[in-house]
Amino acid sequence: MNPAALGLALSGGALAGLALPHAYTWLTTYPSAIAGMRTSEVAEGDTSASRRVSARSARTLVAVSELCGIGLSVASAGLAWLLRDAPGGLPLLAVWLVVMHTGVLLAAVDVAVRRLPTPVISAATLAISVVLAGQAATTGQARTLVAAALAAAALGGLYLALVIIAGSEMGLGDVRLAALLGAALGATSWPAVLLGGLLPFVLAAPEALARLALRRAHSIAFGPYLVAGALIAAVVDG
């Protein structure tokens, strides 16, 4: 494995893991922050949430952060090893590390509060765009950047249509996340786009059938399946 790839994976995973519990706590304790409200607005409206945060043990949060840092660092190194032969090289690995690190946070928040934080998705989209634009500028070839944009539009458009059809079963957060993952999949290959577009529905089917059998009305948190499907598609293609 390329030492630079391993270093990027280990350091990026460690930093993301350390920040993960703090970001999760903020986004699940202050649900209004998910919509991108200013900190002052959130603080004024969520005084009870502020008391809950202050009551938590800082020592426990630090310990959890350290464990997450180790775990995500190891997982990132594993992803780097699985993508070691992928033609996209270091830029493609950087793209998928962004997907993995933000995807873990997005999936956890979606399960907890059935929301996908717009600021997190926007930041990840910006990071991926910068990586791919930088690659296009340094190599003089924009094919990967164009493919990523087209795939993002395709998957985002597909999920927007599903939101219109399915109504409350999906939300615009799913649309934004699908577009983000579409960009990463498009930078990988078109077969990966197809596989990454289909897998979430396959992975979510058992839960959907179980909820139907148990007559549970709560909607499925689809974000984890979107992220898992994209990562599996990237590894299979790589």
TrEMBL record:
One of its GO terms (molecular function) is aspartic-type endopeptidase activity. Keywords: Membrane, Methyltransferase, Transferase, Transmembrane, Transmembrane helix. GO terms for cellular component: membrane. The keyword Iron-sulfur does not apply. Residues 102-199 form the Prepilin type IV endopeptidase peptidase domain. The keyword RNA-binding does not apply. GO terms for biological process: methylation. The chain crosses the membrane at residues 61-83, 90-113, 145-166, 178-205, 217-236. It comes from the Bacteria. This is Leader peptidase (Prepilin peptidase) / N-methyltransferase. The lineage of its organism: Bacteria, Bacillati, Actinomycetota, Actinomycetes, Micromonosporales.
